[in-house]
C-alpha cells in the first residue's frame, strides 16, 4: 500500500517507473515482414552463443512477467546463453479471442519494459493467421531458430504454444528432450489471494480496485490519449481541464475520479482526473478523461499525453447543484495537491 503524501523525489521516481522511462536504448533494430529484433548486447552476433527464449504476450509486464523474465535471465547468463524475449504484434488476442482484450501496455512499451528487465534482445513476431496455425514443433524448431540456436525455452506453467494451443509445457518438454533444449515452466506469481494475470488486472481496473491492480502491475497503470477541445464547463467555474480521448484498445479504469500524473514530453503534472464524462453534464462516455493539471500553463490541444493512475478518490455521481459539484471538485484537487504535489516534475522524454 502506497504511503501518502509523496515527496517530490519519490513522485518523480514512481512516475518514471510507471511510464517505463529511462530504460536502455537498443544497439540495433532489424525489421522484416516476419519480425522486428531489438538487440541490447554486443554479443548478439558472436558465433556459437545459444539463446534462452522467454515467450509471452507480456501485456502489462506485471509482477508475474517480471519474475519470469528475471529468473529466465539469471538462468540464461548462468548457462552462458543470451536471454531473448519473444512477443507478438498484434497481441494474439486480436486473432484468437472473439472480442479483443483491452491492453495494459502497447507493444512499444512492452519492448521497453523487457529491455529494462535485463533481456539481451527482444524479438517481436508479426502475429498472422499463418503464424497462429503453426504447430508448436515448427515454431520451436524453425521459427525461433532463425534468431539463434535454442538452448532453453522459458514460459509460464499455464502457457500453451502453437496451433490450437497444443504445445503445453509437458509436450514442449518432450520436444526439448528429443532436440537438445531445456524447457522450464515457471510458476505463476501469487498475490492478493490469487495468481497474477493480465486478465485479473483488467478486471480489477474495471471495478475501480486501482490499489490492488497497481500492486499486481508493480507500477502505476497508465493510458495514452490525445488532448481535444471539450465542453468548457470546468473552465466556467474555475477548473479548466485537459479533455483526453483514447482509442478503444486501452484498458481504462472504471468510471470515477482519480489522483494521477499527466505527462507530456519531459514534464509531468499532478492531476485530478475524471474517467468518463461527468454525469452532471453528459451521459457516460467511453475512453474519455477530464484532467485538471495542477501547476500547468500552456496549450496541449492535439498533443498525445500519458495519464498514470495513482489513487482512486471517489465514484462518479450526479450532483444536485453546481455548488455541490464545485465543493467536491475542490476537495479532490486539494487531496492531489496535499498528497501528490502541485507543481510539474521533470521526467525523461
Keywords for this structure?
alpha+beta, seven-stranded mixed beta sheet
Sheet with the most strands: spatial strand order: 1-2-5-4-3-6-9
Task: List the total number of helices.
Answer: 11
Helical fraction equals 25-40%
> Cα distance, first to last residue?
28 Å
Rg from alpha-carbon coordinates = 22 Å
Give the SSE string: HEEEHEHHEHHEEEHEHHEHEEEEEHE
Shape: elongated
Counted beta strands: 16
Derived from helix and strand composition plus strand pairing, the structural class reads alpha+beta
What multimeric state do the chains show?
Answer: single chain
Low-confidence stretches: none
**Strand-residue fraction?**
25-35%
If you average the pLDDT, what whole number results? 93
User: Biggest β-sheet, characterized?
Assistant: 7 strands, mixed
Describe the structure.
30% of the residues lie in helices and 27% in strands. With 349 residues, the protein is of the alpha+beta class. The strands form three sheets. Strands 1-2-5-4-3-6-9 form a seven-stranded mixed sheet. A six-stranded antiparallel barrel has the order 10-11-14-13-12-15. Strand 1 and strand 2 form a beta hairpin. The longest helix is centred in the last third of the chain and has 18 residues. The chain starts with 7 loop residues before the first helix and ends with a strand.
Q: In brief, what are we looking at here?
A:
This protein has 349 residues and is of the alpha+beta class.
What is the topological layout?
Elements: H1 8-18, E1 28-31, E2 35-39, E3 51-55, H2 63-78, E4 82-89, H3 93-96, H4 107-116, E5 121-126, H5 129-132, H6 136-143, E6 150-156, E7 160-161, E8 167-168, H7 169-179, E9 182-186, H8 198-206, H9 210-217, E10 221-228, H10 233-236, E11 242-245, E12 256-264, E13 267-275, E14 288-293, E15 304-314, H11 322-339, E16 345-346
Parallel strand pairs: 3-4, 3-6, 4-5, 6-9
Antiparallel strand pairs: 1-2, 2-5, 7-8, 10-11, 10-15, 11-14, 12-13, 12-15, 13-14, 13-16
Helix pairs in contact: 8-9
